[in-house]
Amino acid sequence: MIEVLIVDDNPIVRMALRGFLAGAEDVTVVGEAPDGRTAVATAQRLRPDVILLDHRMPIADGLSVVSKLAESSRVLVLTSDDADELIAGMLLGGARGYLVHGEFDPTELLRAVRAVAAGQGWLSPRSASVTIAVLREQASREQEDAHRAESARATREGFGLTRREQEVMALLCAGHSNAAIARRLLLTEKTVKNHLANIFTKLQARNRTEAVVRWTGQPEPG
Amino acid sequence: MGVAISDASGQPRTHTGVPADGGTALVTALIAHPCPIERAALRAALDADDRIRVVAIAGDGDEAVALTHRLRPAVVLLDDQLGTPEGGLVRALAQHAGVLALTRATERRAITALLRAPVRGCLVYGQIEGADLHRAVRAVAAGLGWLSPVAVAAASFELRARTRRTGQPGPAYQGS
């Protein structure tokens, strides 16, 4: 049996959704909540399989509680808003489905509830489109990051730092002082200063900031 | 064995300006599938919707590209057996049409790999019920998308996984 919690500030909508789901033998509505805060408390108490979540509600809106609710239940967003940012926010927050009022019938709602309960998902045409776009944007950003990391790595190898100098450099990049670097690497501060002098020469850097910039491959500020 | 189906009606072949629900505008479609029997089945299923007109059928990728460039269907239904892992075929088709991928894959990695190419939707055989095929075609024609339930699972998992890996927003930290 799929246990469902209905979260919507409009009692008429809650009643209509109850009615839509009443005909299904494998679905039972275990509770209702009129706002996000009540939804979180009710979900923690009832542990429903699926939460039908509206967005615009008083006290706490759907987007602000979606990730909390998604920790212990599967969330199907049911709302009249379908702005791209809201869809992306809900899905990144852990929602597994997104349906827009006026675009679905009871049959589709049931399929969506069953798909979400089974660990799959259900998206309206617009939310499917947004999902694919966000996915592709993330993939191209990851690819750019990988390229940047690769070119930074190649640049680093060109500097010819010793293993010890690389360790000092890593701590320098993490923002540590000479004294802190010395403590971490079990060296004297004087040895750290000697390492840094050699590093600056190899990196052709005049100071710590320049050294970090060269080493991380980030463009110089300004 | 590419077949261009004559379009005696002279209906405009455009995939813009269709309302989100598909409306009543005619949507043109091309089927690209290596199997004749499955091609015929898809054709019959699409013909059942009088708002969708199948304008061509292709049996391989080259035919699909040539017919798509010539006929400009709004939607290309592309069986993923014709695709390449690099997505070159999809990119060629996507220049002139919305691509709706059809796949047998239910495994997460296979589906996310498919979604890396510029497809507008992904229908998974075995999860296509009722009017799904028609709705998917009309959604893609309207510039929107369609994902079968198992494809939604793959896509949303990947979204959350990438967010965990890289954080949001902005690029991942590059320092050592």
TrEMBL record, chain B:
One MF term in the entry's GO annotations: DNA binding
Residue ranges the record marks as coiled coil: none
Secretion signal, residue range per the UniProt entry: none
Superkingdom of the source species: Bacteria
Entry keywords, A to Z: DNA-binding, Phosphoprotein, Transcription, Transcription regulation
Region feature (Disordered): 1-20
Every Response regulatory domain range: 28-140
InterPro entries hit by this protein: CheY-like_superfamily (IPR011006), Sig_transdc_resp-reg_receiver (IPR001789), WalR-like (IPR039420)
Transmembrane domains' residue ranges: none
4-aspartylphosphate modification, residue list: D79
PROSITE patterns in the cross-refs: RESPONSE_REGULATORY
BP GO terms, sorted: phosphorelay signal transduction system
Name under which the protein is recorded: DNA-binding response regulator
Species in which this protein is naturally found: Micromonospora radicis
